Each structure stands twice: as structure tokens, then as C-alpha cells.
Amino acid sequence: MPSFLCSAILFDLDGVLVDSTPAIIHVWTLWAQAKGIEPESILSIMHGRRSVEVLQLVAPGVDPAVEVRKIEQEITDYKNGTIAIPGAAELLSALPDGRWSVVTSGLRAFAKARLRAANLPVPNALVAADDVVKGKPDPEPYLKAAQLLAVKPEECVVIEDAPAGIHAAHAGGMKAIGLATTYPAAELREADVVIKGLGDARVKSLGEQLRVEVN
Fold it and tell me: 34: domain CATH number?
């Protein structure tokens, strides 16, 4: 049984703690169609990236500040569009305060709203798209989370469901657990280990350290 010793656990949000997939696909598809863009060209690259960087790739002529807020508002407001990933509440309840963070490619206000909609706690250390200059796969978001928690990057374990996030974790010197909720395990092969669901991970507090055990 693989295990990792760490000082903190850093979670991606969508696909790891919450599932907003139906809302994300619906809203981005309608947006793309309205702009005359093939939806698949967006859906195939968007997961794990900040919306502003997706727009820069597929629609450089739009005003990203306006469009990103509109898109994320519609995703957040989509009826029953955000639910907790199975096992998320149990895993978070096992973690001491100040020993975990959420690192998301979404905007801060909407990230908080989605956590609350899923009945999950909002950590004090939350890093969102509007907190960084560069998003995943750049390591900046995860490095900022480690800084907020006052731990060394190499003492962090990241739980991610997207190749871009796994790459960001490794680029920051962190271990990465891949969660095969959004991508098949084969596409998460850069991770140190891949699990099917959060139910396959357990956390034990060992004083100043945490032990993460996975099946």
C-alpha cells in the first residue's frame, strides 16, 4: 500500500472535491456556439486551466475579464450544478485545520460558492485564478498555497484530476496523487500514484506530519 508523509495536502477543486462537470460542459458549449467556435476545441483543453488562459487560446479577441466572470457565474448558478465528490467530506474531516488548501483554476468568489453548494468547508488557505499571474501547468498556484500554509513545497502532497495540475505539482517539487475522475488513469501517468476515487485515500495525523495512504 503506497503512502506519503507530508506536512500539508493541497487539493484541486473541480473533479477532486466537487463535481461541476454538467454545468461546465453546458455553459461552455453554449458560449462556444454563440461565438461560432467548435465546442470540442474548448472542452478538450479546458480542464485544469484558468478560464482566462482557455480564452486566450481559443478566442483571443474577446475581453477575458468580462467573459470569464460571466462564464463562471453561469456555471455557479446552474441549478444543482455542483455536488461533492464521493469521499470528499470524509477526507477533509480527517485533516487538522491549517494543514490543507484548495488550489483552483476558477475565480475565488465562485470557488467558495461551489464548496458551500457541495456542503464542504472553505479553507482559510485558498488559491484561486485571481490570486496568481500564471495558472497550471505553471507551479505558481501550488507554490503559493504552500507559502500560505507556511510549509516547504517538498512537504506537500497534491491531489489532482488533470494532467496540467499534476505537472504543476511536480514542477513545484511536490508529490502528486492522480484522481481518475475526469481523465482515464493512463492520461495521469505523470502522477506518483493514481487512484479511482477519494475513498481509496486515507489520512492519519502523526503530530507535525500527515500520512496519506492509498489503495
Answer: 1.10.150
Q: For the chain, how big is the Rg over CA atoms in Å? A: 16
- Annotated active-site residue 192? The verdict is no
Structure confidence by residue, pLDDT tens digits, 134-190: 999 999 999 999 999 999 999 999 999 999 999 999 999 999 999 999 999 999 999
Neighbours of 196 (CB within 10 A): 11
Q: Is residue 149 located within the same domain as residue 45?
A: no
Contact yes or no for 173/146 (Cβ under 8 A): no
- For residue 158, the domain's CATH number is 3.40.50.1000
61 lies in which domain range?
Answer: 21-77
To the question of pTM greater than 0.70 for the whole model, the response is yes
Q: Are residues 14 and 117 in the same domain?
A: yes
Tell me, rounded to whole angstroms, the distance of Cα 122 from its chain centroid: 14
**Active-site residue flag, 12:** yes
CA distance 72 to 137: 20
How far, in Å, CA of 204 to CA of 127, rounded?
24
Average pLDDT estimate for 20-30: 91
Say which of 14, 19, 138, 161 is annotated catalytic. 14
Number of domains in the chain: 2
Q: Indicate which residue of 12, 19, 138, 161 is catalytic.
A: 12
DSSP structural state of residue 14: B
